[in-house]
Design brief:
The protein is 57% helix and 10% strand. It has 743 residues and is an alpha/beta fold. Helix 23 links the parallel strand 11 and strand 12. The protein is rod-shaped.
Length: 743
């Protein structure tokens, strides 16, 4: 009949089926409400075993001991800077935390407390978790379990040590040097003992580390002292042997520092050094005496030559010369007096003059004696100077040779001094470490010891139950969302419109109870209003959608096509018109079964039309139903032929305002596609959340193959609480108008 033509005014751009849709958060709640039974089952399935496991957990007691580390190694600096911005060496503190967590400490605690024989510890050690027990049980069916052998003492210590690592927690807040050691066990006394033992073992371990390091340093120093002592002895012996070999015998205890040399380099002055110094001093004195004697002799010689005895100090100071000069003066005075009285031949005058001459000769002889004495002293001084000069030259040559040997001596002395310095330094360190070895203490202090707790600290069953219940609830909600997401059915008019060649005529909600109950009530409901909206489109809408003879089908079975066809007819009857429903599904007639109605006996007084032998009148107000009985009576096979349907429509077409054909599913049987040529169009019924886009596409392909005219599709059995915002809006309006929900 009519071909599928969609006016341009109704054309739309199709989106791919199954494209992701934007779902509001409120829609998620509607989905969960629809799957509330699934959520409840999943929640209980998780929450009940979790509650059993939580309440079967044994209580535990926490006991904590507190340490502060690095108390003796932090240097004192500016007090204000230390108080205002204290620096925490996190690397050092983390190192101490790692030491406390090490297997060495845990093994020492096990041995200290003898935990390998503690009943509680052994019971915890032999406990096997439920999951492992199940695994072992299953494994026994496939593999024979190995024969258990008793643990050795070392293996028991190791096993208990690993158990302690699970019971003990060592923490540092990263902002201080405080380390908290917390032990959690089923017994308060055991928790306190373990926490305190960890602190004690740690302090002993740190002290032993320092003592061991000190003794190792002592041993190293002791090993080095013996060769250093031998080296010093050999160096000093080499110095002494060189002195003796080269005659560098020290005459003084210490030699005065020499300018330009190291003041710390001292050595004894040799005899030759002292002799040379002495000779130099004597030579200087002798040369001074020589010059004095030479000046004295020159002065005396000059005075004698000039005849001026007054310039000779020895003559002036000589008593003999002074006496002779006095006598000469007296005799000369007498001679002068006589020369004036007597003649030169006077014997007395001549005697006086002879006496004066004799006196002068005696003075001259005395002066010559003084000059000879000065000459002898000069010669003696010259000889002394010459002798001293020769001796100094000899000593200088000897000192030069000794100085050349002294260079080597100084090198030997330097080596001996260096050996002595190193040896004395090692001796000092050895004495210091030997003293400190007995005084070593750990660089940590125990602030507080653990006390047995008065009440258990856990497990926090309420918190665990809250978490378990929340997790179970989330798992249930997630399961509902996953189930809803896995379901590929159409869930909105937008998705229905997205299928090429299909127009969404409307949506009808799901309802409970029978269809007769919906239409027997005097008050209108949301279901009736939604069906009436679709009927209005078919009756008064665009010419593209107007139809009097409508074929109602679906892609698959159970999508509500029969119920929708009857509802369209019932809405037509409520408007005071007449509607006919023809049940064309000869294989599985369902119209009367959906209504739950019995066949009505025909009135004997009314003429019976052979074509309408199976007609049920007024099953609903204004609704007649043509059952398959008449179709089987007139038909020749398992389906109604188009010619037979044409005869029926031609016969009853003028009696009804709307004729609805209820046909089998279009994908399974060709009835709908074939009979559509006798109708004004096809309405596809799509079950909300059930029918997929690919199924509808295949159904449209089948209908187009027979040139069927598709009026549109109706989304049925939609839960109002699970609809999107656009689809849910009309139901809010219905509620404000006081219309009853679909129930």
């Amino acid at each position: 009949m009519n071909t599928l033509q969609i006016p341009s005014s109704y054309s739309k751009q199709s989106t791919l089926p199954g494209a992701p849709q934007q779902v509001s958060p409120l829609h998620a709640f509607s989905i969960m409400n629809r799957h509330r039974i699934t959520i409840a089952i999943v929640t209980l399935a998780i929450a009940i075993p979790s509650a059993v496991a939580i309440f079967s957990m044994k209580p535990y007691y926490d006991a904590s001991s507190i340490l502060i580390v690095g108390t003796r190694q932090a240097p004192f600096r500016d007090l204000q800077a230390t108080v205002s911005s204290p620096e925490v060496d996190t690397v050092a503190v983390n190192s101490e935390v790692s030491i406390l967590r090490s297997p060495t400490i845990s093994r020492a605690v096990v041995q200290k407390l003898d935990l390998t024989h503690d009943p509680d510890v052994l019971a915890s050690l032999s406990y096997v978790p439920l999951s492992k027990r199940i695994t072992n049980t299953v494994t026994r069916f496939f593999v024979s379990p190995p024969t258990a052998r008793p643990l050795t003492e070392n293996e028991r210590i190791q096993a208990v040590s690993e158990l302690l690592n699970k019971w003990v927690t060592v923490l540092n807040d990263g902002r201080s040097y405080i380390i908290t050691i917390t032990a959690s066990t089923a017994d308060p006394q055991t928790s306190a003992r373990i926490a305190n033992a960890y602190a004690d073992v740690y302090l002993d371990f740190k002290r032993r580390m320092k003592v061991t390091a000190t003794w190792q340093a002592n041993a190293l120093l002791d090993e080095q002292i013996v060769p250093l002592r031998d080296r010093l002895r050999k160096a000093e012996q080499a110095v002494q042997a060189f002195r003796e070999k080269n005659g560098l015998i020290a005459a003084e205890l210490e030699r005065a520092p020499v300018a330009g040399t190291d003041n710390n380099t001292n050595g004894g002055a040799t005899v030759t050094d002292q002799q040379l110094s002495q000779m130099n001093r004597e030579l200087i004195v002798a040369r001074g005496d020589l010059e004095a004697h030479r000046a004295r002799y020159a002065e005396i010689s000059s005075a004698i030559k000039n005849g001026s005895l007054d310039s000779i100090p020895e003559a002036v100071s000589s008593p003999l010369i002074q006496q002779l000069q006095a006598q000469e003066a007296q005799v000369s005075s007498q001679a002068a007096s006589l020369s004036q009285v007597v003649m030169d031949a006077n014997p007395e005058l001549q005697s006086t003059r002879a006496a004066a001459s004799h006196i002068r000769s005696r003075i001259g002889a005395e002066v010559h004696r003084i000059a000879n004495s000065a000459a002898k002293e000069l010669a003696s001084a010259q000889a002394r100077v010459a002798a001293l000069s020769n001796e100094v030259n000899k000593l200088q040559k000897q000192v030069t040779a000794e100085n050349e040997a002294d260079v080597t001596l100084r090198q030997l002395q330097s080596e001996a001094t260096a050996a002595r310095t190193v040896y004395q330094d090692y001796l000092g360190r050895f004495a210091q470490t030997s003293t400190q070895a007995e005084l070593q203490v750990a660089e940590a202090d125990l602030i507080s010891r653990a006390e047995p707790p008065l009440e258990p600290q856990g497990p926090p069953r309420k918190q665990y139950m809250a978490i378990a219940f929340l997790f179970a609830l989330l798992a249930g909600a997630g399961s509902a969302l996953v189930i809803d997401r896995v379901h590929k059915g159409i869930r909105s008019l937008e998705e229905l419109d997205a299928i090429p060649g299909l127009f969404a005529l409307g949506l009808v909600p799901a309802f409970t109870g029978s269809l007769v109950r919906q239409y027997s009530s005097p008050q209108r409901s949301a279901y009736i209003e939604t069906v009436d909206s679709i009927r209005s489109v078919l009756s008064f809408g665009h010419s593209r959608f107007r139809a009097k003879v409508v074929l109602v089908t679906s892609a698959e079975q159970g999508e509500g096509k029969t119920t929708f066809a009857l509802s369209l007819a019932a809405n037509t009857g409520r408007c005071g018109q007449r509607a006919l429903v023809i049940d064309c599904d000869i294989r599985n007639p369902s119209t009367m079964r959906v209504l739950g109605a019995l066949r009505v006996a025909q009135n004997n007084h009314m003429p019976v039309d052979p074509l309408l032998a199976g007609l049920e009148r007024d099953v609903l107000p204004g609704v007649d139903i043509l059952t398959p009985d008449a179709i089987r009576h007139h038909g020749n096979g398992a389906m109604l032929l188009p010619e037979e349907l044409g005869q029926i429509l031609a016969h009853v077409g003028s009696q009804y305002d709307m004729i609805l054909l209820d046909t089998p599913p279009a994908l399974a049987f060709p009835d709908a596609a074939i009979l559509s040529r006798q109708t004004d169009g096809v309405v596809l019924v799509v079950k909300w959340g059930h029918t997929s886009a690919s199924t509808l596409t295949q159904t449209l392909r089948t209908l187009h193959t027979y040139d069927a005219r598709t009026l549109g599709a109706v989304l049925t059995q939609a839960p109002p609480n699970s609809l999107g915002k656009a689809e849910k809006s009309p139901f809010h309006v219905y509620k404000r108008y006081g219309l009853l929900p679909a129930s």
